[in-house]
Write a structure and sequence with these properties.
Elements (H helix, E strand, L loop, with lengths): L1 H15 L6 H26 L2 E3 L12 H7 L4 E3 L3 H24 L4 H15 L6
Antiparallel strand pairs: 1-2
Helix pairs in contact: 1-4, 2-4
């Protein structure tokens, strides 16, 4: 069922894009959508204030297990997204997914296959997937 949803989304994007089919258009639109996602998150901090960023150096305990290291790592976020900021960020992430699907279509790639391959790679590497 999930594969059908992703494939249907990718097909819908393919059917809707008729004006900006160039790979150059797709790349620049995707890049712009990335910037808009980032800007929406920044606005949640700087204009709304529903979340705060309190960043500092991550302290990694010596001779720790991977589980202890995971617990010690911090997101540097405080607070919770308000409904308005959540809606805006979801909207921008949705557009970002649209342009990812557009790039996949232009390059004759299947988004579902990419997700499956990445999931398998992450599972295979497990806790050693330290990206």
């Amino acid at each position: 069922m999930k594969d059908m949803l992703i494939d249907e989304f990718q097909y819908t994007v393919q059917e809707l894009i008729f004006r900006n089919k160039s790979i150059i258009d797709s790349i620049t639109k995707y890049q712009d959508s990335n910037a808009r996602v980032n800007r929406s998150i920044v606005k949640a901090v700087t204009q709304c204030g529903c979340i705060r960023i309190n960043a500092k150096k991550q302290e990694v305990p010596e001779d720790s297990s991977l589980e202890e290291i995971r617990k010690a790592m911090d997101t540097h976020l405080e607070g919770k997204l308000c409904d308005s900021c959540r809606d805006q960020i979801e909207k921008e992430l949705g557009k970002n997914l649209y342009y990812i699907a557009s790039l996949c279509n232009t390059l004759d790639l299947n988004l579902y296959d990419i997700i499956i391959k990445e999931q398998e790679r992450v599972k295979m590497l497990g806790k050693f997937n330290l990206e």
